[in-house]
């Protein structure tokens, strides 16, 4: 004799939608207003206690490493779950009276409005190996930009490990007795999220009247050549080159090449490099310094992303890394204390920049001598090179467990009288945002997919208590 199923048929969840008033690729800044409507369509009569709507920001990191023991792979999981801020309000009217009854088949709209803050509202002391590591910060700080860094450049980073992301969004949670969806033995409130894009103001935008700060990098060089005595470099053959190297009477020039690199830039702006040539000393036989040619051999913007997720000690050693007590959870609590180990990852990505112009030819100007009876060459000259920083370059930032910094790498070629020299410089640079800043394609795709993220699938079943 067969036995009937003991499972009680579960009715469908109500449809709930977050409808933002702005297009998905809208980039919010501090002080901007985020508004829209929560649309609720019950499939059965409902008497909700609240419809909580939140504007939030959070930092998420998940890295996975593998060790093999007796030919069996064991996965170690390193995770960080850091809230940046959350502002919550109940949009259900008449909150001080009995819960309203919402009829089946009707559609209800509840407006909401938030103003984006500028700063992180909490700190994370004691949740990392070193609270004072200058690469990150545990204290209150400016909100970092929307950020997605993953080895696979996946649109939705949470589908797999090895990612670090800063995400913002609007979350709606329906709190209604007897209605929710099951995870294991627990019943959870119906919850949906609509991602939004955020970028902080450029902290240097209001000090544009001050001269830009640049760092000068210098290097000395020496050369011996008959070209310094006025002989054309094209007429100096192999034998003359050999004699120039061996003879102590060969004219000699000691000079210094310098490069000025700005300390701060902005996405989509111009990078202006100033190159200097300075004579340090010459021998008496050096009567003329030939034409000087500067060439930008390499110009790169290097992005450095450094993360520090602690060990998730409660995670299983399976690929998915679910927690032992709740296989539906795969992130540690928000206030998890440091778990004795930490995984630090530094990744680099390079963006090649085109120099305008690629090279420049200069001559030392001739000026009257001190007695005014003859002309003599000046001791220095300089020129400018420019390049464009991509408009999608994420601003520099450092947060609880994620930091993004930049380095400008320049290699300069210097040619004088047929002699060639090279000079390579690395300089840290802070990148800020501009009104023309636009997020990269992965972040835009993530935001454009918010409709799919906010509509609850009808096939999901609710649990009635």
SSE layout and pairing:
Blueprint: E1 15-20, E2 27-28, E3 33-41, E4 50-69, E5 72-90, E6 108-115, E7 147-150, E8 163-175, E9 181-183, E10 186-188, E11 190-198, E12 214-224, H1 238-246, E13 252-262, E14 264-266, E15 270-282, E16 292-307, E17 345-352, E18 359-362, E19 366-368, E20 375-377, E21 380-388, E22 397-398, E23 402-416, E24 419-432, H2 441-448, H3 450-454
Parallel strand pairs: 2-11, 14-24
Antiparallel strand pairs: 1-3, 3-6, 4-5, 4-8, 7-8, 8-11, 9-10, 12-13, 13-15, 15-21, 16-17, 16-18, 16-23, 19-20, 22-23, 23-24
The assigned CATH architecture of the largest domain is: Sandwich
Radius of gyration: 32 Å
Distance between the termini: 30 Å
Overall mean pLDDT stands at: 84
Uncertain spans: 1-9, 153-158, 451-465
β content, as a range?
Answer: 35-45%
Global structural class: mainly beta
Strand and helix order: EEEEEEEEEEEEHEEEEEEEEEEEEHH
Q: What is the CATH top level name of the largest domain? A: Mainly Beta
CATH level-3 fold name of the largest domain: Immunoglobulin-like
Q: Helicity range of the residues?
A: under 10%
Number of helices: 3
The oligomeric state of the chains shown is single chain
Number of DSSP-assigned strands: 24
Global geometry = elongated
Domain count: the total is: 2
Main sheet summary: 7 strands, mixed
């Amino acid at each position: 004799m067969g036995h009937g199923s003991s499972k009680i048929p579960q009715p469908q969840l109500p449809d709930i939608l977050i409808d933002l008033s702005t297009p998905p690729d809208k980039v919010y800044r501090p002080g901007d207003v985020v508004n829209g409507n929560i649309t609720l369509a019950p499939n059965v009569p409902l008497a909700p206690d609240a419809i909580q709507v939140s504007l939030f920001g959070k930092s998420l990191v998940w890295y996975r490493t593998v060790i093999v023991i007796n030919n069996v792979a064991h996965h170690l999981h390193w995770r960080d779950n850091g809230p940046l801020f959350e502002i919550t309000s109940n949009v259900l009217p008449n909150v001080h009276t009995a819960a309203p009854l919402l009829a089946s088949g009707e559609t209800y709209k509840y407006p909401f409005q938030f103003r984006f803050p500028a700063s992180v509202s909490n700190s994370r002391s004691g949740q990392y190996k070193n609270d004072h590591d200058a690469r990150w910060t545990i204290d209150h700080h400016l909100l970092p930009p929307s950020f997605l860094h993953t080895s696979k450049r996946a649109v939705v980073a949470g589908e797999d490990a090895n990612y670090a992301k800063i995400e913002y969004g609007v979350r709606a949670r329906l709190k209604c007795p007897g209605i929710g969806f099951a995870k294991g033995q627990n019943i959870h409130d119906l919850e949906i999220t609509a991602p939004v894009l955020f970028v902080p103001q450029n902290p240097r935008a209001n000090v544009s009247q001050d001269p830009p700060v640049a760092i000068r990098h210098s290097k000395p060089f020496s050369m011996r050549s008959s070209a310094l005595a006025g002989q054309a470099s094209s007429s100096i053959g192999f034998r003359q080159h050999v004699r120039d190297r061996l003879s102590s009477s060969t004219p000699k020039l000691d000079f210094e090449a310098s490069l000025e690199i700005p300390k701060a830039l902005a996405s989509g702006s111009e990078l202006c490099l100033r190159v200097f040539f300075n004579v340090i000393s010459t021998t008496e036989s050096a009567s003329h310094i030939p034409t000087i040619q500067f060439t930008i051999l390499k110009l790169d913007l290097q992005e450095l992303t450094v993360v520090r997720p602690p060990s998730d000690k409660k995670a299983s050693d399976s690929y998915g890394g679910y927690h032992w007590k709740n296989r539906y959870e795969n992130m540690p609590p928000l206030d998890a204390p440091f778990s004795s180990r930490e995984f630090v990852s530094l990744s680099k990505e390079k963006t090649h920049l085109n120099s305008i112009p690629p090279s420049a030819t200069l001559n030392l100007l001739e000026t009257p001598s001190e007695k005014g009876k003859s002309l003599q060459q000046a001791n220095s000259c300089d020129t400018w090179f420019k390049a464009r920083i991509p408009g999608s370059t994420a601003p520099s930032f450092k947060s609880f467990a994620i930091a993004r910094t930049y380095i400008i790498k320049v290699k300069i070629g210097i040619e004088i009288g047929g002699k060639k020299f090279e000079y390579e410089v690395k300089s840290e640079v802070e990148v800020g945002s501009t009104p023309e800043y636009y997020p990269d394609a992965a972040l835009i795709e993530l935001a454009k997919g918010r409709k799919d993220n906010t509509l609850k699938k009808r096939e999901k079943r609710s649990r009635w208590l």
